[in-house]
Amino acid sequence: MVHDQITPTRRQLLASGAALSATMVAGCIGGDSGPGDGLLYTQEVHPEGDFDPVVSNDAYSAQVIHQVFDGLYEYDYDLELQPKLAAGEPEEEQDGERYIIEIVEDAEFHNGDPVTAEDVAHSFTAPVEEDTDNRPEYDFIDVDGTEAIDEHTVQIDLEHPYGPFETLTVATYVVNADVRTDDPGDYNTNPVGCGPFTFEDWTSDEYVELEAWDDYWANPEPELESVRFEAAEDDAGRVSQILAGDTDAIATVPPEDWDQIEGEEGIEVYRTESPSYQYVAFNCNEGETTDPDVRRGIAHAFSMSDFVETNLGESATPVSSPIPPIVDDLGWDFPSDEWEEQAPEYDPDEAEALLEEGLDDPDDWEPTIIVPPDDVRIALGELIASRLDELGYDAEVQALDFATLTDTYISGDADDYEMYILGWTGGPDPDVYLYNLFHEENAGVTQGHFYEGSDDFHDNILEARETADQEERRELYVDVIDELVEEVPVMPAYSEHNTIAAQDYVGDVQPHPNVSYNPELVSDENNVYLEDDE
What is the set of domains in the chain, with CATH numbers? Predict the structure, then answer.
């Protein structure tokens, strides 16, 4: 049975030899012996090990963080923000350059410290002051003006108005400022949050263990007693685990295994639309792909829509711009049909002509395509390479682990890559896609294409994020995306749906549109539990 929760009108990367194996642990936390007291959840990739929200910048660590920390505001299943630690809506002052937010009075951290306005202020200013990977999401924060007015009132000042502040930035997890600043390194791997689960244990590349917090300050309290996160980085591994009953639930059902898992007795499959954006990016810093005709030639060498249909089927939607459909549907009304018509279609003759014209040395071009270690994006890289091989160019695909991949693509070195395939899960506003992935300020940080753009390109992105009026922002974004479609520094690929497969004794499963929230274990709308064997 497939539980579709797609909301079309709504809308974000060592081990001890004595460690217990997944099978040995399964008897006490679920898995092959059926339901136990805790949930065993198998992710696609091991968390990088940054469990401090100020520092962490990968979705798999974020999935753990979401259970341990509460946000000032949090997204519901329609990707609309609801107050969590906040007592109500933000109060805007000074023409959008100041926000006053009251926080609840009864929230506590796991160590018993009260959650205060000082903690909230620190959570907003630390990414900027410490220049973490999350700085692009906060670099408009005025750190001098952001402060606690009293114990339960925080003042957040901005350097300039920021249109998505109330739809993106306020969804910030709140850290314990005193504990964190006392020992930041320890906090990163032994975090103290105020969420429904406490952080108990972690072994790199093996597992993360959480326990339900008996004194959780909010409602509802978790039904589960514990959660263990493990990972199977190959799709076949996750599929075999769920089919064999060696795990309670897995993230991301591979499209090619969808029918088998769906038809398996005792397993349920769940799906929801997401704000994810998968893309093929070109090295515009150096090498042959600095020429837009070379980029267009590669885009004409294969059919992206056919690839998505064949390899992902109902698990994804093809996209023609960096803005996922679920975000566009939030009142932006972008000309997506026009962009789709302008996108390069499969035309091998045009591809051959453009490449011969654009390449400086066509006889010696051997492009490298770097991809993360998942089957679909490896398949996409291999498709591009095979089509280029057919045209006489010896392309190479390198599958790299996420840490190596990010260290590689930020180099801008054509010897390292001329294309890379990655994805980005942002949120319900175009800014988090266009600023992070295309503005020159983030070249070599959250992007590796180093696209110089036209005279107005980067200015338009910056002006849009500093403008509160949505229609004005829309016009600026249309100009930006028009150029992206025309010059092809990246090829939009698809927006992948969030999917979870779970044993049927796992109750109240609802995948969240925001992948970093999954599994959503405790919310106002669901509370995951394990049924008894009886």
Answer: 2-69+195-272+498-530 (3.40.190.10), 73-181 (3.90.76.10), 276-496 (3.10.105.10)
